[in-house]
Amino acid sequence: MCYNKTQPVRVKIQNRFQEEKMKRNMTAAILLLLALAVPAAVGAETRYVDTAARDASLRSEPNTEAEETASIPDGTAVEVLENNGIWAKVQAGSETGWIRTRYLSDKEPEEAAETAAEQDEESLLDLDYSSFVLADPYYTHVQAGYTGGFVNLRWAPSKVAAVQHRINDGGEIVVLAEGDEWDQVMDDETGYVGFLQKQFVVPQASEAVAP
User: Fold this and answer.
1) Would you say the C-alpha torsion 193, 198, 201, 202 has a positive or negative sign?
2) What is the CATH T-level fold of the domain 40-105, as seen in this structure?
3) Terminal Cα-to-Cα distance of the chain (whole angstroms)
């Protein structure tokens, strides 16, 4: 029988090739498992709270039973730190917590407000203002609900009304008329007049406006 001297060498090369291939496949599988097990980290992406009808709850943990640490107004810009697909860890001003991803949008609030205002223009014209009572104008300030936040001054007492201006937490305002859920106010710094939700207006007057 003729003996082929190259056969053992060929077998060794084939075996080594198979071993290297198995190592690469195992490494790829481990990396894939690690990627699936760890929530996706994002590079500080800016998103905007988009709730239309109400403020969004910022929670201490990514579940609905967790403590609500802050209330974030519609339109607030937040920095996304983590995202697991259902919940996102965000930073809003000095507050950090978890918010449902369905309440975040990459659309800037001015564009969203214009779209909502166009869609609901007719319904806003039919709003009932009978609950508003003219106030003796007085100075007070806004409370945004979280440090470093702001509130939206809207042209009508509705969350779908366009935002005219944003007033920073602690900003001074003059209350002109009071309603059940909204107050008509003037921003003392810019002179803008519009409506703020009552929950963001400090009720105690600091001083009366001089006649």
Assistant:
1) positive
2) SH3 type barrels. (2.30.30)
3) 121
Q: Hey, is 104 helix, strand or coil?
A: strand
For residue 163, give both structure tokens. 């935002």
Q: How far apart are CA 39 and CA 115, in angstroms?
A: 33
Q: Do domains 40-105 and 109-208 have the same CATH topology?
A: yes
**Domain extents for the chain?**
1-38, 40-105, 109-208
Tell me whether residue 193 is exposed, middle or buried, using C-beta atoms within 10 angstroms of its C-beta: 0 to 12, 13 to 18, 19 or more: middle
Give the range among 46-55, 89-98, 131-140 with minimum mean pLDDT: 46-55
Q: Cβ of 53: how many Cβ atoms within 10 Å?
A: 8
Strands of 40-49's sheet in order across: 68-72, 56-59, 95-100, 87-92, 77-83, 40-49, 104-105
**CATH domain 109-208 topology:** SH3 type barrels. (2.30.30)
pLDDT above 70 covers a percentage of the chain that reads 64
Q: CA of 51: how far to CAs of 54, 93, 102, 113, 126, in Å?
A: 6, 18, 9, 11, 22
- Give the CA count within 13 Å in the CB-facing half-sphere of 148: 8
C-alpha angle with apex 25: 21 to 27, nearest 5 degrees? 115
Q: State both tokens at 82.
A: 């983590």
- pTM, two decimal places: 0.47
